[in-house]
Amino acid sequence: MASCHSNEDGEDGDDTNDAWRVAFTSDPDFHTARALLQRKGDIKALTHAYMCVFGDQFLNLVRTMVESEVSNVSDAHAVEMMRGNSACMKILSEVAYVVGTDYLRDVLAGPMAVLFHLQDTLEVNHAIVHDDMTLAAHRAQLESLAQTILDRLVCAPFPPLLAAVCLYLRRSVATRFHAHSDSILGGFLFLRVVCPVIVMPCRSSVFPHVAKASLPPHALRSSILVAKLLQNLANNAFFKEDYMAPFNPFIRRNFPTVVAFYDRICDSVDAATSPTTRLETTTSLLTVDEAWK
């Protein structure tokens, strides 16, 4: 396939390139583009290539994929949709990291620095830590870290293109599973985007210089507990484990803030002007063929 930019072989090459691009992107149902996603390959590279090739049409592709994904989910599995490993879920996650890396880094850098430099675990399981004062101190610090992350998520400027993706997801889910629209949106933002960065920063594009070897086990355990607290908050799910139950008031107190956050994100999308999907020049040189090798 031709590259996103015109090649240098002359007008004939330019015409062929333009004709291919029009044919590939003009299908209102994006059959070819969606078929390519079903093949095994590098979803990350293909996402970058699609954002370049489709340009302002990319959001329409995302909307079509989301609507198709929602229509194929049964009532019994609606709440588990974000735990799936479909091409749609993968590309949504990758889009979030492509356009949201700076946002996530700004939000998480401070709290993650605290977690990275912990001298000891913030374990709250009373079967492991037996001293009540220590347990209380650990709970307070974990809750403080989770609260800081939530406050920063809510207050920081949200990426416009990611806001549009959230709006499409919320609307599509609401047409079939109205009661689950917020929990599924929360699953996307927290389960698939925010929490993986907190738990495994060394594998994310948000903190590319963090090496796995630099994360001591006690810091990883504390990160998992913070992520668990945020994920249950996003789902408005109270903890059933005895040692996590003391955090249920945190969930009860903050869930209205989370819903207001979702509302603000979706309300920020201006239907009259789609957010740009243009990437840096180095990314736009990718071709769909190259992305799939």
Automatic annotation (TrEMBL):
Gene3D superfamilies: GTPase Activation - p120gap, domain 1. It comes from the Eukaryota. Residues 61-235 form the Ras-GAP domain. GO terms for molecular function: GTPase activator activity. InterPro entries: Ras_GTPase, RasGAP_dom, Rho_GTPase_activation_prot. Keywords: GTPase activation. Pfam families: RasGAP. SMART domains: RasGAP. PROSITE patterns: RAS_GTPASE_ACTIV_2. This is Ras-GAP domain-containing protein.
